[in-house]
Design brief:
heterodimer, A: 225 residues, alpha/beta, Rossmann fold, 2 domains, five-stranded parallel β-sheet, four-stranded antiparallel β-sheet, globular, B: 418 residues, alpha+beta, Heat Shock Protein 90
Chain lengths: 225, 418
């Protein structure tokens, strides 16, 4: 899976590249409009991570360019502008998703994964991890061919952990992924624990290895032996 | 009152006043002139009589008419020279008294002294006077009427560009992309007004755009470093696994970054609300939003064991979808955050109001300061202190009123829609 990261802030660019490379993607990165245009004209990417405020041009112009070239690359906008109009404009111009800075890298990763799954037409809706297989379109989960009944939140949680496997996910990141940005948790994450507990119980009951580890004080991590 | 009506009222009052004074003066002057003319006639009659007597030494033959007659009687002493006077005499046909001018003088003919009285009726004069006054009053009336009509037509037409300008100003939205552009008009005053308004809105528009792009750029400049900090902390957290002390510190940094980012977003929202960057013309189903937001927070309610009483009528408002979500979200966040575990919350929505009450943990809030930015009640540390300020601003923008009450150990926030 090939990604292009267009972000002018060098250290953020590096963090994204590091994180996504670790997640198994092939990443290329540019830091300005001119280089970005050169890249997208020549190569095809599975997903482009696009900052819309670039020093020498607007990311929205790049979106238009992609559309004119009839490219099918997935695009996720990352922007410090959280204004609703910017979001709507970006999505109308053909972006697949919009993420407001600052964001969790794990959140970016799960969104990229969703875009790539949506873009590919070759039955890519099935994800396998350990003995678990997840059908992201049918929203069903099987462990060794045995179906596991999950609630919507548990399913989202499993997908989030799967996409970010072998990484520690903070309670903060999980809460924001499952409940969105506008909720005020007041540092009360007890209910995340109960979702994790239930998910773990259900997976293990179906015969899966105990793959969700609790990292003391920090969060949770999906890891297979 | 319209300018024209006011102007017209003053104008007509002044005109009537001047015409009234003029008419009275005109009446007296005319009367004076006419009476003098009468008296002239009387004197010339006297002259004729005296001349006749002097020439013929006998009284002339007297020919009386309806309006003028002479009586002669013998006198003993001569009558001194007098001016004509007004006397009242019975009318010749009717039994009415009528004013008559009388000139009395004495002549001597054939050694006999006579007292001659020359009468001349004022009736004719009166009639003439009446006619003249009537014509005058009619003229004044006509002048006033035509003046009024012409003014009304003319002034309405002349003021047309003014109303046009007013309409444009009324429809003008600061959030619109174009500054107000009022056209040239043939009237100098309106032109002056339009030019001033054009340049004023031009300036306002520039300031507004500058302010707007400043807050957006400031947002970009601040959120990007925050994004860097956050991503670095996230990477460090991966490596710090198994070192609880480091993890703890990193989590504190992450929380602080999150809070800073929230704070900044809230301030940006307040700025936008202050700039009136939102147009509230969407039809918003408030009931649905509340139910959705409650559902999102279901687990929070459960984890704090909060009891919830809700009574929601279906309510649709002309509002802004996004702002309505923020409004409801903030109200609920507030309530969840500050209700003690096991407390209860009630939400009531109908066509007049949205009311949220909850069990208080630490007594009443300062009702005059509760909506201030960064107001935090004692015993509370976390939270941005901007939630209620945002709610208040949104209400202000939408023309709602929000009140805070404290009764029976419960906080009550009520939003009245009109």
């Amino acid at each position: 899976m090939k990604l292009l990261i267009i972000e002018d802030e060098a250290s953020l660019n590096q963090s994204i590249v590091d994180f996504l490379t670790a997640a198994g993607y092939l990443c290329e990165s540019v830091s300005n409009y001119r280089e970005a245009v050169e890249k997208i004209e020549v190569y095809d990417y599975d997903c482009i991570i696009l900052d819309i405020m670039l020093p020498d041009g607007s990311g929205l112009a790049l979106l238009k360019q992609l559309k004119e070239d009839q490219k099918t690359d997935g695009v996720i906008i990352i922007s410090a502008k959280g204004a609703l109009e910017d979001k709507i404009e970006g999505l109308q111009l053909g972006a697949d998703d919009y993420l407001t800075k600052p964001f969790h890298l794990s959140e970016l990763s799960v969104r990229i994964s969703a875009i790539i799954r949506r873009k590919s037409f070759k039955g890519q809706s099935l994800m396998h991890i350990g003995e678990i297989s997840i059908d992201t379109i049918g929203k069903t989960v099987k462990v060794k061919e045995q179906e596991v009944e999950l609630t919507q939140k548990e399913f989202q949680l499993l997908l989030f952990l799967t996409v970010n496997k072998n990484r520690v996910l903070s309670k903060n990141a999980i809460a924001q992924h499952l409940w969105g940005d506008d909720m005020d948790f007041a540092a009360n994450y007890d209910f995340i624990y109960s979702h994790i507990k239930n998910l773990r119980k259900k997976l293990m009951a179906a015969g899966s290895e105990d793959c969700i580890r609790s990292i003391y004080g920090e969060g949770y991590k999906m890891q297979f032996a | 009152m319209k300018l024209f009506s006011r102007y017209n009222r003053i104008n007509i009052a002044a005109t009537i006043f001047i015409f009234a004074i003029g008419s009275v003066a005109f009446y007296f002057v005319l009367q004076y002139v006419l009476i003098r003319q009468l008296d002239e006639t009387l004197r010339s009659e006297q002259q004729e009589v005296i001349e006749y007597v002097t020439a013929h030494d006998q009284l002339p033959e007297i020919q009386n008419t309806k309006h003028q007659w002479i009586t002669v009687e013998k006198a003993i002493v001569p009558i001194p020279k007098t001016n004509p006077v007004r006397v009242w005499q019975k009318n010749s046909r009717e039994d009415e008294m009528e004013p008559v001018r009388l000139l009395v003088f004495s002549v001597s003919a054939a050694n006999q002294l006579y007292k001659v009285s020359v009468y001349k009726s004022e009736n004719e004069t009166e009639d003439l006077l009446k006619l003249i006054i009537l014509v005058t009053v009619a003229m004044i009336g006509l002048i006033l009427l035509f003046n009024y009509l012409i003014n009304r037509r003319l002034i309405t037409r002349i003021w047309q560009p003014f109303y046009h300008t007013i309409d444009k100003i009324r429809d003008y939205q600061l959030t619109a992309q174009n500054p107000l552009s009022l056209s040239k008009e043939p009237i100098d005053e309106i032109n002056l007004l339009n030019d001033s308004l054009n340049s004023m809105t031009q300036r306002i528009h520039q300031d507004y755009s500058a302010l707007r792009s400043f807050s957006e750029n400031a947002s970009h400049e601040m959120q990007t470093p925050l994004a860097v900090i956050r991503s670095k902390v996230e990477s460090l957290l991966q490596d710090a696994e198994g070192n609880p002390k480091n993890v703890q510190q990193l989590l504190v940094i992450e929380d602080a970054t999150l809070k800073l980012s929230r704070l900044h977003q809230s301030l940006l929202l307040l700025t936008k609300l202050g700039n009136r960057q939102f147009i509230l013309n969407e039809s918003v189903d408030l009931t649905q939003i509340i139910e959705h937001k409650l559902q999102e927070r279901e687990e929070l309610f459960h984890s704090k064991e909060l009891k919830m009483i809700r009574s929601l009528d279906p309510v649709t408002l002309s509002f802004h979808q996004h702002l309505a979500e923020i409004l409801v979200g903030n109200l609920l966040n507030n309530v969840i955050r500050y209700t003690p575990n096991g407390g209860d919350i009630s939400i009531r929505l109908n066509h007049e109001l949205l009311s949220v009450t909850n069990t208080a943990a630490h007594g009443a809030l300062q009702s005059d300061r509760v909506f201030e930015r960064f107001y935090k009640a004692e015993n509370t540390q976390d939270g941005t202190g901007l939630g209620l300020a945002i709610i208040k601003e949104i209400c202000h923008l939408a023309g709602f009123t929000i009140t805070y009450r404290y009764t029976d150990n419960r906080h009550e926030f009520t939003i009245y829609f009109k």
